[in-house]
Sequence to fold (657 residues):
Amino acid sequence: MPDGSNPRVDIGVCLFLIVICCALLVEAAKLPPGSFEPLGSAPIPRATAGLIIFLCLLVVGRAALVMWRGQASAAEAPYPPRRLDAAVLFGLTVLYVLLMAQRVAGFAPITALFLFVAIAFLTRFAPRSLPVAALIGVIMGWGCQYVFTQVFVVDLPAG
Amino acid sequence: MDGLLGALGLLLTPWPFFLALLGTALGIIVGAIPGLTGAMLIALTLPLTFYMQPVHAVILLVSMYVGSISGGLITATLLRMPGTPASVMTTFDGYPMARAGRPGRALGLGIGASFVGGMISWVALLLLAKPLSIIATRFGPFEYFTLILMAMVLIASVSQGSLVKGLISGFLGMLVSMPGVDPSTGAPRLTWDYYMLNSGLKLLPVLIGVFAVSQIMADIIDLNRKTERVEMSGRGLLMSLRDWKDQAFNLIRSSVIGTWVGILPGVGASIGSVLAYTVAKNMSKTPQKFGRGSEEGIVASEAANNATVGGALIPLIAMGIPGSVIDAILIGALMIHSIQPGPTLFLTNADVVWAMIAACLVSTVLMFVLMTCTVGYISRLMYLPRAMMLPVIMVFCVVGTYALDNTMFDVWVMLGFGVLGFMLERAKMPLGPFVIGFVLAPLAEAKLRSGLMMTAGSLEPMFTRPLPVLFLLIALALLVWPLYSDWKRNRTVDDTVE
Fold:
């Protein structure tokens, strides 16, 4: 693609956006027309979603053309990208938030555990990094709890 | 002038001064650490400002803004990796000069240029903000609506990547701002009968998700990236009198370019520095030196990117329209403190406006002093292990979002927008238009609907009044021009192939 993006990624993202816009269009169809003002609630969301769908179709068409012509060139990164690690860290974060939402334990112990596991994982469980990860976890977990609850007077999730 | 003097007096009292110092220092540090950006820092700091007075919050955030734009210079020079997108052009000449054994000289030129750029744009901010806000108070709803429309098209057309993708990003930001209670009718819309969506998607979880979470994920993918580094030496860190004299014209020209680019809604520091660098190269007596350690190149890039800060604050203060992505976050900060940005800001919250202007000045001076005195120490922070830093930042994202309303719903929203931001970035869809669309859409919709109520549903004033027509024509030209350029370029390529 002229902007350096991968046509497959373009198509995937645009199709995802089209699905979201279709869902919004369906929801907007339920809105009543304006009664005391000319426009009402629905036309602007509808027009915006419609425009996004139209523009996404343009991108999909262009990306498909590039793929069909065989012009797609996947630019190789000069280093091995750690895509799986990003997905795992995101998964760990979801788990971290879920555990707090379910009040399995308080903010401090869950945060300490999350940081220890996440740092250990990203440093490939290097033995030298484990004590540092544990220390960061403890300082951040109980330190943040103290600062947020005592200084900023914010309630953090309790166990 | 009394307002400014009062704000400067306030800023020199211990607590506000400490906030300005802290904000500038944190901004420089974050700017100097690759992968962390000013937008990320300011979005993460927003929850902490709930507990501050609005004036103090504004001082802290504006200082962070100034610091973060300047800090990127350090990594650009020593690592050939721009700490912030605004310093991309600095890498072209800063790094070659540093590799040639003159890192102190490269940094010194950059720091001096940043200072001058900041000061010149501050003067423009001081002189232009109030008169522009007086003019903007005369705008009717259609003038405002078409101005926002023009701003959106401008943002999309100058963002990196294609115009179509910029437009998708901007419209998506607008669409995301629409669920919740319709301000005109009071009825919920696009909520799927889910009560948590009645108040809409809040700015902070969306911002933290789009800027911080997506950036963390992108940084993890790049963890194996090896950087070429140059050791810091402080020799030549201060610009001599002769340097100031030699670079005077370049400094002023680049600062003026940066300021004007900053004033254009949504056009950030990166474009300002690219434009100033290109002009400096075209007007230089030694253009061949550009890209190989040119002093003019460093000065042009750094003066312009810092000048965009003051320039970008002008439309924010005068019209409530963000001059850059960080300004969009600042608008969010004002709203969180129940301050309505717009042309009446000078009347309703003059103390906040003057604090913003004074903070811009004081933090520019503090940035110069801090960078000159501590650049050696700050440069060591570039080597902090990112594998340890990124999970810590993720915790701050979660806590900061949760602190907004003590609800986990916001945290899920943040994570969802983190994924969306990451996807948009992978598809090279710029995030700037998304955030600015998200911030401006409610205002645009409110203006259009109130205009239509005034005219009983007629759009005629949009096409008959001079200002709306002018804004629409500019928007149209901005839309057509990139398409025409693309078509012309493709035709030239085809002709060459034939």
